[in-house]
Every structure is written in C-alpha cells, then in structure tokens.
Amino acid sequence: DIDEVNSVAQSFKATVYAEFQWHDPSLAHAGPDSTRRKLNDIWYPETQILNQQKLVDTFPRFAEVRPNGDVIFRQRVWGDFSQNLELRHFPFDKQRLEITLVNVAFGSTRVRYEVNAGSGVSEKLRIPDWKVLSWDVSAVDIPVGAGSSAVSAVVLSVDVERYISYFTLKVILPLMLIVAMSWMVFWIDPSLAASQISVGVTAMLTLIAYRFAIGGMVPRLGFLTSLDYFVMGSTILVFLVLLEVVYTARLFQSGQQEKAREVDKHARWIVPSIYLMIVLETLYFRLGI
Fold first, then answer.
1. What is the side-by-side strand order in the sheet with 150-162?
2. Global pTM?
3. Alpha-carbon span 174 to 105, nearest angstrom
4. CB 249 within 8 A of CB 263
C-alpha cells in the first residue's frame, strides 16, 4: 500500500509485506507443530531494500520452521523509499514507483529469488491523489558494482497517475481567471489610465505570489515543468497587457484618443487568442495528447 508520494523529496511512503520461504533439511524436526526460531540462530537469505530511506519493522524477526524443514520468514515494513520522479509533465505526470529487494549475503552459497504468484498491491491506495495504472513484480539479476557479478533481486514496480482535479480546480482555473481579470483594462476608457494600470499591476502581483506558491510543490529542477511553462506564459501575457495600457495612455495624452480606443478594441480579441494558444501549447500539445 502507498501512503504518500512526495514530489519535493523525490520519495514515497509505503507499507510492504514480504514473505520468504525456503527449505533447510537441517532444521527438520519431529513436529507435529511448527516451531519459532530467531533469525540469528539459523541461515536465512539476508535481504536489503536498495532504495529504502527510513523503515520500521512491525513484525518480530522470527522464522516459522515446519517439521519437514520448510522455513517461512514474514516481515512487514513501513516507511520512506527514494524514487527519482520524472516531473517534466507535472502535474499531468505518470510515475513508476519501485521497491527493489536484493540479496546481500556473502559466501559461496548463491541465493536466487523466485516470485510467489500471490504477490500484488492493495486494490485501493490510501493516498487520494494518485491512481494505480498497473503493477508488476519479477525476479531479476542486477549488478552491485563495476566488475562484480550480478545478484538475485526482486523488483516490485507500481505505475501510478496523478489525479489532475486538484490542480485543475485549485491552481489552473483560478490562474486563468486572474489572467482574464487583466483583460478588463481593454473595456476601461484610456482616459482612466490609473484604473487600467491598477488592474494590471494587481493581476501581475497575484501571479508572482502564485508562482512562489507553486514552486513549493516540486524540487529545484534544472528544467521547467508543464505547469511552469503555463505560469510563465500567463505572467508574460499579463506583462504585455501592462505595456499595452502604457501605450494607449501615451496615445490618449498625445491627442490620439480614437487610436487609443481602437487599440483597446483590437486587444479585446487578440490577447485572449494568444492566451488560448499558450494554454494549448503548455497544457495540451506539450503532453503529447
């Protein structure tokens, strides 16, 4: 089960239950019931989760030993796992979350994992803003270093997709309304230049504050996400609206009142058309939909 995906910390929080079973003839006993043995008292496949950060074991470290020598070790861990997230399409992104279990035992005995057919993920995740697209668990061989032989490992991968309703309703739609608010200057007579500039500056300052708020949703990336392109395009457009206000105010003061009003009339449809292209480019075509 996945509790949280932290885009800023490049990690996710999950609960993992693992069950290891192997056969050790030296541990066979008369029975009839199974016995409990401490792991440190018997041989067991020492396993490490490669991308673990801070985990908590919730089961005691005991193994069940059946009369025929079959040994079963069960463990449930909860905590944080590191994960490199691909955020270029944020917040319309899909991610693959992986948990890799690898054998770290030394010696001549080679351990090979086989995946139980009953493996899987929770039907419904606790985290509300992601949905599971698919999952896979497989036994693979992975290298542990340059020139080293590969070791057996088990990789559990879960493909998830971020729900966009939160960002659409609480980020993108309000942002579009702020940009549309700046278009009110085109319906205010150029003789009221102070009112026009006040509306434009208010929209500009609101967009700057929005950009700081959105910046806390992702780490400091070396590239722009889809949402960054959208916010940047919106900010540039509002700045151009401010330039248009200054231009029409200068025309009005120089005695070209009719030309100033004509510029505003053309801007009423030109600016929204430009913004429509920005929306399509940053939130639609850039995603390859």
1. 47-49, 94-103, 150-162, 130-143
2. 0.80
3. 55
4. no
pLDDT by residue (tens digit) across 129-180? 888 888 899 988 887 776 667 788 899 999 999 888 888 888 889 899 999 9
H helices present in 115-225, as ranges: 165-167, 173-182, 193-215
Tens digits of residue pLDDT in 9-50: 899 999 999 999 999 999 999 878 999 999 989 988 888 898
Structure token pair of residue 21: 């079973």
Alpha helices in 140-188 (DSSP H): 165-167, 173-182
What does each C-alpha distance from 71 to 27, 32, 191 come to in angstroms?
8, 15, 87
Query: What are 19's two structure tokens?
Result: 């069950």
> Residues for the chain: how many in total?
289
Lookup: tokens for 221: 């990336």
Rounded CA separation 210/74 (Å): 48
Amino acid at 224: L
CA 117 to each of CA 10, 97, 139, 153: distance values in angstroms, whole numbers, following the listed order: 30, 20, 12, 16
